[in-house]
């Protein structure tokens, strides 16, 4: 085997190793990190949307949903998660209402489009921004006219081409380009007057409902980004060989 073949073999092995050891950035928060009020609030419809969801900042002291953003850079690897104090902003519109009888109840679903951010409490700077345009907002209820007591909002890069993660500050420069997933769990979901949140015949969730919530998300760096060092090594090897 000549030197060029040896160099190519070593570089290919390096690329395979890099691809095989890719670690996801994993993020999460839980509503009990807030402890001052609800996380989410339902808002009225703005056609063609059939309803919407905002953060419940107006119902929290200081008009902020405070939380702790947990960031695990190697997803359950040897390093502990980093705790980043932050406050949470969220805005989404709901469309395409659908109801399907299932298991003695009703599976209610909508398409959610929007974005959310985690911001630095000290200077209001964005730490992490997530955008989505084809997430599923789903609830299971015993009544077609009432939202369930829990709901989920989730999507992945495989089904939502508009799902993007952008990091700033301590997350600036992180590659969040592939295998993106996000999932919110809404709990203690209740109507504006207490009880369950009503849904009208058009699939519009009446505004004013609130809920607690937890969230997790992950993103894996693109193989191209991981392999960049290996490709650079191969190019350097070829240049050195040609200069001899």
Q: Could you name the ranges where pLDDT drops below 50 across 5 or more consecutive residues?
A: 2-21, 224-244
Question: How many alpha or pi helices?
Answer: 2
Basic shape = globular
Helices and strands, in order, run as HEEEEEEEEEEEH
Pairing-aware structural class of the strands and helices?
alpha+beta
Brief summary of the model shown:
The protein is an alpha+beta fold. It has 2 helices and 11 strands. The longest helix is centred in the C-terminal third of the chain and has 21 residues.
Give a description of the structure.
It is a single chain. The protein has 244 residues and is of the alpha+beta class. It has helices spanning 3-20, 223-243; strands at 25-30, 40-43, 51-55, 65-72, 82-102, 105-119, 126-141, 151-156, 164-167, 178-190, 210-220. Strands 1, 2, 3, 4, 5, 6, 7, 8, 9, 10 and 11 form an eleven-stranded antiparallel beta sheet that branches. The longest helix has 21 residues, at 223-243. The chain is globular and about 50 Å long. The two termini are 18 Å apart.
What are the defining features of this structure?
alpha+beta, globular, 11-stranded antiparallel β-sheet, disordered C terminus, about 240 residues, disordered N terminus
Secondary-structure blueprint of this entry?
Layout: H1 3-20, E1 25-30, E2 40-43, E3 51-55, E4 65-72, E5 82-102, E6 105-119, E7 126-141, E8 151-156, E9 164-167, E10 178-190, E11 210-220, H2 223-243
Antiparallel strand pairs: 1-4, 1-11, 2-3, 2-11, 3-5, 4-5, 5-6, 6-7, 7-8, 7-9, 8-10, 10-11
Helix pairs in contact: 1-2
């Amino acid at each position: 085997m000549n030197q060029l073949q040896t160099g190519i073999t070593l570089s290919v092995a390096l690329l395979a190793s890099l691809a095989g050891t890719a670690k996801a950035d994993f993020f999460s928060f839980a509503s009990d990190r807030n402890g001052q009020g609800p996380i989410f609030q339902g808002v009225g419809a703005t056609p063609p949307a059939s309803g919407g969801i905002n953060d419940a900042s107006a119902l929290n002291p200081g008009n902020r949903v405070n939380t702790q953003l947990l960031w695990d850079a190697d997803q359950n690897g040897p390093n502990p998660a980093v705790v980043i104090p932050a406050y949470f902003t969220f805005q989404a519109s709901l469309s395409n209402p659908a109801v399907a009888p299932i298991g003695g109840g009703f599976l209610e679903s909508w398409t959610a489009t929007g974005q959310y951010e985690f911001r630095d409490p000290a200077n209001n700077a964005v730490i992490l921004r997530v955008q989505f345009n084809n997430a599923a907002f789903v609830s299971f209820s015993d009544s077609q006219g009432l939202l369930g007591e829990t709901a989920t909002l989730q999507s992945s890069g495989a089904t939502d081409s508009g799902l993007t993660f952008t990091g700033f500050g301590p997350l600036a420069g992180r590659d969040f380009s592939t295998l993106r997933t996000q999932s919110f769990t809404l709990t203690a979901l209740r109507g504006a007057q207490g009880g369950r949140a009503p849904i009208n015949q058009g699939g519009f969730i009446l505004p004013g409902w609130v809920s607690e919530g937890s969230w997790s998300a992950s993103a894996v760096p693109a193989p191209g980004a991981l392999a960049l060092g290996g490709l650079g090594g191969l190019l350097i090897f070829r240049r050195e060989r040609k200069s001899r």
